[in-house]
């Protein structure tokens, strides 16, 4: 090969290697830049996520959330509890934050927090053992009360009027919203045309604590519905086994509630109602007449029994169209587990005692003996 050709080959190889080196450098530069951008974006995103996770969940929301921290709870357990209750955004970040700040000595107990609290405020409360805050209002709703009676109780204790409460619990759009929130509790049955008040019977009898100076009607109603949901959910399978809808079970419980005051009475009266229904008899319970009349009377008259209402159990031969009052859990238990007897009748004497009978003749004798 001539010297000239060797030179040309050498030059061509040199140019090729030079171009290849430039290409490699470009690729390496692109990879490095890409990696830097990825790390930069990832770092910024991670920083923003951690920063957000350390902020209050909802700085404007002062609604109280009660949580129970069991004895012996680890940091990760506490973080999980707080995250599940919507008080922090990320339990892992909370745990890392606690370890980073070397925080410890958290105390067990039932706490009341809000989603507006910062993580440092949550930590301080857990360390100091500041448990449930003192309520501004504590209001007891007795068993056997109608919504109208409850509205009167709340209007005496809180800032809104009785009519404000009644208007809200009869507002169709609000009821439909609640039905979406509590689909297993509030069904289409509460919207039947002859239902007087959709939520009648569904606002549970209990003592309620409110931590705001002026809680809204909605806050009150939904606190009561949450309690009802908690109670009745424990009996869902039994209610289904009895072939009742939720509405029918609550309606039945309201009748038992209005007719009895002790667990023994409730079990027996529930048994009487079952016997009458099985025999095709009308339930004939006076509280349904009074509810149909829409007024309180010390004595139900024979003329009152004739009122044509789907609530009047002297007029219909089944359960009323809906509940006639709220109920105690023991009344629902009696509906689920009634006492098995042959009694078909009962009556109250003037001293509040209840007398049962198996036959109409026996019932008439009880009436003559105990009713003045």
Topology at a glance:
Elements: H1 3-53, E1 64-69, H2 75-84, H3 91-101, E2 109-114, H4 119-128, E3 137-140, H5 147-157, H6 162-169, H7 172-181, E4 207-210, H8 217-233, H9 236-241, H10 246-259, H11 263-278, H12 286-293, H13 329-336, E5 345-348, E6 354-357, H14 360-370
Antiparallel strand pairs: 1-2, 3-4, 5-6
Main location: membrane
Family: Belongs to the transglycosylase MltG family.
Keywords: Cell membrane, Cell wall biogenesis/degradation, Lyase, Membrane, Transmembrane, Transmembrane helix
Provide structural commentary.
The structure is a single chain. Helix 2 packs across helix 3 (91-101), helix 10 (246-259) packs across helix 13 and helix 11 (263-278) crosses helix 13 (329-336). This protein folds into four domains: 23-53; 64-128, Dna Ligase, domain 1 (2-Layer Sandwich), CATH 3.30.1490; 137-226, Dna Ligase, domain 1, CATH 3.30.1490; 233-370, no CATH class. With 372 residues, it is mainly α. The longest helix is centred in the first third of the chain and has 51 residues, at 3-53. The model has no long low-confidence stretch (mean pLDDT 87). The protein has helices spanning 3-53, 75-84, 91-101, 119-128, 147-157, 162-169, 172-181, 217-233, 236-241, 246-259, 263-278, 286-293, 329-336, 360-370; strands spanning 64-69, 109-114, 137-140, 207-210, 345-348, 354-357. It contains 14 helices and six strands. The strands form three sheets. It has a two-stranded antiparallel sheet. The chain is 51% helix and 8% strand. The chain starts with a helix and ends with a helix. It is elongated.
């Amino acid at each position: 090969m001539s010297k000239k050709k060797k030179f040309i080959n050498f030059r061509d190889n040199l140019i090729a290697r030079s171009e290849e080196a430039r290409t490699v450098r470009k690729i390496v530069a692109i990879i490095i830049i890409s990696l830097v951008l990825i790390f930069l974006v990832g770092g910024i995103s991670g920083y923003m996520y951690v920063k957000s996770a350390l902020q209050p969940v909802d700085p404007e929301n002062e609604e109280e959330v009660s949580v129970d921290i069991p004895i012996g709870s680890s940091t990760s357990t506490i973080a999980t509890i707080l995250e599940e209750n919507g008080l922090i955004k990320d339990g892992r970040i909370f745990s890392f934050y606690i370890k980073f700040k070397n925080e410890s000595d958290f105390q067990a107990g039932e706490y009341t927090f809000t989603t507006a609290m910062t993580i440092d405020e949550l930590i301080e409360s857990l360390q100091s053992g500041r448990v449930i805050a003192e309520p501004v209002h504590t209001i007891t709703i007795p068993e056997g009360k109608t919504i109208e009676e409850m509205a009167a109780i709340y209007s005496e204790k809180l800032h809104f009027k009785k009519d404000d409460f009644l208007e809200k619990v009869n507002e169709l759009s609000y009821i439909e919203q609640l039905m979406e929130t509590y689909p297993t509790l509030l069904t289409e049955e509460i919207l039947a045309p002859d239902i007087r008040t959709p939520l009648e019977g569904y606002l549970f009898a209990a003592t309620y604590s409110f931590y705001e100076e002026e809680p809204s009607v909605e806050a009150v109603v939904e606190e009561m519905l949450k309690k009802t949901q908690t109670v009745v959910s424990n009996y869902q399978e039994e209610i289904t086994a009895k072939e009742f809808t939720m509405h029918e079970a609550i309606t039945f419980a309201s009748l038992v509630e209005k007719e009895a005051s002790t667990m023994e009475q409730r079990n027996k009266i529930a048994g009487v109602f079952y016997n009458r229904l099985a025999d095709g008899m009308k339930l004939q319970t006076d509280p349904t007449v009074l509810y149909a009349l829409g007024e309180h009377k010390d004595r139900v008259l024979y003329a009152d029994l004739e009122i044509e209402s789907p609530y009047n159990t002297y007029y219909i031969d089944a359960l009323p169209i809906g509940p006639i009052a709220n109920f105690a859990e023991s009344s629902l238990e009696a509906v689920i587990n009634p006492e098995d007897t042959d009694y078909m009748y009962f009556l109250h004497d003037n001293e509040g005692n209840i007398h049962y009978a198996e036959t109409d003749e026996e019932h008439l004798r009880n009436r003559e003996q105990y009713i003045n």
